[in-house]
Predict the structure.
Amino acid sequence: MNNTSVEIIGCFNTILDPYNGITIDSQFLPKTKEEFELNLDFLIQTVKNRRNLIWIYIDIKKSDFIPIATKRGFFFHSCDEDYILLVKRTIENAIIPTAANHTLGVGAVVINDKNEILVIKEKVSNLGYKLPGGHIDNGEMISSALEREVLEETGVIVEFESIISLGHFYPHQFHKSNLYVLCIASPKTFEINIQDTHEIIDAKWIDVNKYLEDDEVLAYSKAVVFASLEYKGFIKANQEVLCHIKKDFELFFPIESKKFV
């Protein structure tokens, strides 16, 4: 049995994964449907008794390859703008890791030296003023997403300090869950200059106590602000504790965890 991580089978370069499956990247697909069909049949026969799964990334430019794969037992797993990922079990009941089942969002509690909190009002919402925040983009870190969203919605430059709350909501967009990370950030500038005028109609500084007494403010937002006034939350940890990982990451620990921060 070949247990190396990379194996050439037909025209495909395959990479072994932790589920005893093999993955074929779209760059290794042949040019024609005929070549794809021939090599795919050979691949299935070659690995069916020693691998559990076959994963294939198909570029949108080769979407005519999809019916060929689905006729051989492949089904849709996940996708992005320019590809679809198909998977096939080669043994019954093989474990298939779940595709991304949530969206990510981030919000900010920003309070200045005057005890004023930074708030925004959205065009699409008939509610009152809320905390600035929005969607975390693919590959984006929590802290950088926070700073970007606040800048876009208010024009205020902030610096991430800590995570104060984590919300989990279901259902949300695309029939998925949503994880919403509320953070404390310190303002580095104070002038309001809304950049995202398509979504935000107003942004302002308002006295914290006045905001907490406003009946139009959601109880959820008030709870987050109260928590930020009383606790420090989870701050960014010393990245050296995972320096062996060759990928982007952020670590957060309670401020009491001196060993890591």
Summary: DSSP finds five helices and 14 strands in the chain. The helical segments are 33-47, 66-70, 142-154, 208-213, 219-230. The radius of gyration is 24 Å.
